[in-house]
Amino acid sequence: MASLNVGNLGEYLREQRRAAQLSLRQLADAAGVSNPYLSQIERGLRKPSADVLQQVAKALRISAETLYVRAGILDEREREELETRAVILADPSINERQKNVLLQIYDSFRRENGFVPEPDETPGTDDTPGVDDTPGVDAGKDDNPHS
């Protein structure tokens, strides 16, 4: 019997596929999975791997993290954190040092609110000069002349 999460995932995938105006066969081809397998996922009979979900998300041009949450692979809070980090890192209007400082501030606020980052995400572990992850501490001269 399919779990509730898998059923919700299948319904969500079907809605997204229809919104994209793709047939089941077109989405299966674009995602590199078989038509019957995709059909089983949509009907809640199969729980796809994270790799398959990533391929389907790419074909649908939606967030893989959203599918991971629907499938029960990723917690909603983790998805939100990943998306926040991805948006910061993808922003072309700020430089790499500014992105690093912003991520460190973000982590310090999360710690302050009871969310502990993973060890490899711990702020202050890089060698960026003039960067302090303590809230309220000046992180050095800003490269943006408009601030």
What is the beta-strand fraction? under 5%
Gyration radius (Cα, Å) is 20 Å
What oligomeric arrangement do these chains adopt?
single chain
Could you give the order of the helices and strands? HHHHHHH
Question: Care to count the β-strands?
Answer: 0
Query: Averaging pLDDT over every residue, what do you get?
Result: 78
**Backbone structural class:** mainly alpha
Describe the structure.
The chain has about 150 residues and is mainly α. It is built from seven helices and no strands. It has helices at about 5-20, 25-30, 35-40, 50-60, 65-70, 75-90, 95-110. The longest helix is centred in the C-terminal third of the chain and has 17 residues, at about 95-110. The model is unreliable at about 1-5 and about 120-145 (pLDDT under 50).
Architecture blueprint of SSEs:
Elements (H helix, E strand, L loop, with lengths): L3 H16 L4 H8 L3 H8 L7 H11 L3 H8 L4 H15 L5 H17 L35
Top keywords for this entry?
147 residues, mainly alpha, 7 helices, 56% helix, disordered N terminus
Structure in a nutshell:
By secondary structure, the chain is an all-alpha fold. It has helices spanning 4-19, 24-31, 35-42, 50-60, 64-71, 76-90, 96-112.
